[in-house]
Protein backbone atom coordinates (compact mmCIF):
# COMPACT_ATOMS: atom_id res chain seq x y z
CA UNK A 1 0.00 0.00 0.00
CA UNK A 2 0.85 3.63 -0.14
CA UNK A 3 2.68 5.29 2.73
CA UNK A 4 1.24 8.62 3.93
CA UNK A 5 3.60 11.48 2.89
CA UNK A 6 4.20 12.73 6.45
CA UNK A 7 5.12 9.24 7.65
CA UNK A 8 7.47 8.73 4.70
CA UNK A 9 9.10 12.15 5.21
CA UNK A 10 9.68 11.81 8.95
CA UNK A 11 10.93 8.24 8.53
CA UNK A 12 13.50 9.45 5.99
CA UNK A 13 14.50 12.37 8.21
CA UNK A 14 15.09 9.98 11.12
CA UNK A 15 17.13 7.64 8.89
CA UNK A 16 19.32 10.43 7.50
CA UNK A 17 19.74 12.00 10.94
CA UNK A 18 20.88 8.61 12.28
CA UNK A 19 23.42 8.31 9.46
CA UNK A 20 24.81 11.78 10.17
CA UNK A 21 25.04 11.07 13.89
CA UNK A 22 26.79 7.74 13.17
CA UNK A 23 29.39 9.65 11.14
CA UNK A 24 29.99 11.85 14.16
CA UNK A 25 28.99 15.07 12.46
CA UNK A 26 28.74 18.02 14.83
CA UNK A 27 25.31 19.40 13.95
CA UNK A 28 23.20 21.74 16.06
CA UNK A 29 19.94 19.77 15.90
CA UNK A 30 18.06 22.55 17.71
CA UNK A 31 18.17 24.42 14.38
CA UNK A 32 16.66 21.54 12.40
CA UNK A 33 13.85 22.52 10.03
CA UNK A 34 11.41 20.21 8.26
CA UNK A 35 9.91 21.92 5.23
CA UNK A 36 6.82 19.70 5.51
CA UNK A 37 5.80 21.33 8.80
CA UNK A 38 2.99 23.91 8.54
CA UNK A 39 5.03 26.38 10.63
CA UNK A 40 7.59 26.37 7.81
CA UNK A 41 5.56 26.11 4.62
CA UNK A 42 2.85 28.59 5.66
CA UNK A 43 5.24 31.41 4.71
CA UNK A 44 5.99 29.84 1.36
CA UNK A 45 2.24 29.63 0.71
CA UNK A 46 1.71 33.20 1.93
CA UNK A 47 4.39 34.53 -0.43
CA UNK A 48 3.03 32.48 -3.34
CA UNK A 49 -0.49 33.84 -2.77
CA UNK A 50 0.93 37.39 -2.81
CA UNK A 51 2.63 36.61 -6.12
CA UNK A 52 -0.63 35.21 -7.48
CA UNK A 53 -2.54 38.33 -6.37
CA UNK A 54 0.09 40.57 -7.98
CA UNK A 55 -0.11 38.67 -11.27
CA UNK A 56 3.48 37.42 -11.02
CA UNK A 57 2.26 33.81 -10.84
CA UNK A 58 -0.54 32.27 -12.88
CA UNK A 59 -2.25 28.94 -13.43
CA UNK A 60 -2.15 27.57 -16.98
CA UNK A 61 -1.69 24.38 -18.97
CA UNK A 62 1.81 23.64 -20.24
CA UNK A 63 3.53 20.85 -22.16
CA UNK A 64 6.10 19.22 -19.86
CA UNK A 65 8.65 16.40 -19.86
CA UNK A 66 6.99 13.52 -17.98
CA UNK A 67 8.99 10.60 -16.57
CA UNK A 68 6.53 7.67 -16.48
CA UNK A 69 8.69 5.63 -14.08
CA UNK A 70 9.45 8.35 -11.51
CA UNK A 71 5.98 9.86 -12.09
CA UNK A 72 7.38 13.38 -12.13
CA UNK A 73 8.01 16.36 -14.36
CA UNK A 74 11.60 16.86 -15.51
CA UNK A 75 13.42 20.04 -16.48
CA UNK A 76 14.95 20.02 -19.97
CA UNK A 77 18.37 19.62 -18.33
CA UNK A 78 17.20 16.36 -16.73
CA UNK A 79 16.34 14.77 -20.08
CA UNK A 80 19.35 13.11 -21.70
CA UNK A 81 18.90 11.70 -25.20
CA UNK A 82 15.14 11.56 -24.64
CA UNK A 83 15.41 9.67 -21.34
CA UNK A 84 14.97 10.65 -17.71
CA UNK A 85 18.32 11.23 -16.02
CA UNK A 86 17.46 9.05 -13.01
CA UNK A 87 15.11 6.33 -14.27
CA UNK A 88 16.37 6.02 -17.84
CA UNK A 89 12.74 5.85 -19.02
CA UNK A 90 11.69 7.38 -22.32
CA UNK A 91 10.31 10.79 -21.47
CA UNK A 92 6.79 11.62 -22.64
CA UNK A 93 5.46 15.04 -23.60
CA UNK A 94 2.37 15.64 -21.51
CA UNK A 95 0.09 18.67 -21.18
CA UNK A 96 -0.76 19.36 -17.55
CA UNK A 97 -2.10 22.31 -15.58
CA UNK A 98 0.18 24.01 -13.09
CA UNK A 99 1.29 27.27 -11.57
CA UNK A 100 3.95 29.26 -13.36
CA UNK A 101 5.93 32.41 -12.66
CA UNK A 102 5.85 35.07 -15.37
CA UNK A 103 9.63 35.20 -15.63
CA UNK A 104 9.54 36.84 -19.08
CA UNK A 105 8.07 40.00 -17.51
CA UNK A 106 11.28 40.33 -15.52
CA UNK A 107 13.68 38.83 -18.06
CA UNK A 108 15.85 41.93 -18.58
CA UNK A 109 16.22 42.55 -14.84
CA UNK A 110 16.99 38.88 -14.13
CA UNK A 111 19.42 38.55 -17.04
CA UNK A 112 21.28 41.65 -15.87
CA UNK A 113 21.73 40.13 -12.40
CA UNK A 114 23.13 36.98 -14.04
CA UNK A 115 25.36 38.52 -16.71
CA UNK A 116 26.25 42.12 -15.76
CA UNK A 117 28.94 42.53 -13.07
CA UNK A 118 27.92 46.22 -12.77
CA UNK A 119 24.40 45.23 -11.67
CA UNK A 120 23.98 45.67 -7.87
CA UNK A 121 22.17 42.30 -7.81
CA UNK A 122 24.91 40.51 -9.79
CA UNK A 123 25.40 36.88 -8.77
CA UNK A 124 29.07 37.30 -7.84
CA UNK A 125 30.76 34.16 -6.63
CA UNK A 126 28.39 31.90 -8.58
CA UNK A 127 30.12 29.42 -10.91
CA UNK A 128 29.94 30.38 -14.58
CA UNK A 129 28.09 27.14 -15.43
CA UNK A 130 25.36 28.01 -12.89
CA UNK A 131 25.03 31.57 -14.23
CA UNK A 132 24.75 30.13 -17.77
CA UNK A 133 22.06 27.67 -16.64
CA UNK A 134 20.11 30.55 -15.08
CA UNK A 135 20.52 32.65 -18.23
CA UNK A 136 19.21 29.78 -20.38
CA UNK A 137 16.34 29.13 -17.96
CA UNK A 138 15.23 32.79 -17.98
CA UNK A 139 15.29 32.98 -21.76
CA UNK A 140 13.35 35.78 -23.46
Automatic annotation (TrEMBL):
Keywords: Aminoacyl-tRNA synthetase, ATP-binding, Ligase, Nucleotide-binding, Protein biosynthesis. It comes from the Eukaryota. GO terms for biological process: leucyl-tRNA aminoacylation. Its EC number is 6.1.1.4. Residues 7-114 form the Aminoacyl-tRNA synthetase class Ia domain. It is an enzyme of class 6 (ligase). GO terms for cellular component: cytosol. The keyword ATP-binding applies. The keyword Aminoacyl-tRNA synthetase applies. One of its GO terms (molecular function) is ATP binding. It holds the Pfam family tRNA-synt_1. Belongs to the class-I aminoacyl-tRNA synthetase family. This is leucine--tRNA ligase.
Amino acid sequence: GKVPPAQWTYSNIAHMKGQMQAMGLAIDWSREVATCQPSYYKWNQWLFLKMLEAGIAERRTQVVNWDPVDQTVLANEQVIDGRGWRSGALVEKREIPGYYLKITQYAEELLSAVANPEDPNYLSGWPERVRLMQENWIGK
